[in-house]
Amino acid sequence: MALFIDILIIVLIGVMITYAIILNSKLKTFRNAQNEMATLVGQLNDAISRAQTSVEALKGTALAEEGRLDALIRKSRPLADELTILTESGENLADRIERGLVPPGGRLNEASDDDDQEDDTVSEADVPEAENEMLAALKKVR
Length: 142
Description:
mainly alpha; 83% helix
C-alpha cells in the first residue's frame, strides 16, 4: 500500500509540475503583452500631447486670423457704403437723364430754340433736390 501512495504522490507531483510549466508560459505571454501594452499606452500619450499642442496652436492662429479679418471688414464697410452712395447717385443721374431733366453735358439738344433759355441748363430747383438726395443717401448709410 505504501508503494501505491508513493506512486500516486509522484503522479500528482508530475501533474503539478506540468501545470506549473503551463502556467509559467502563460504568465510569460501575459508579461510580454503587458509590456507591449505599456509601450502602446506611452505612444498614445505622446500622440495625445502632440494633438493637444496642435489644437492650441490652431486656436492661436484662428484668433490671429479673426483679428485680421475683423480689421479687413472694418476697412471694407466704409468702402462698401461709399460704393453704395456712388451707385445710388449714378442711378439717380441716369434716371434724370432718361426723364430729360438733366441732359448729358447739362444742355438740351442743340436744335432747340434759343428763347427756351430756361430749358437749356439745369434749373436751380434741380440742384438742391440733387444735393438733398445725396445728403439723404449719406445719412441713410451712417
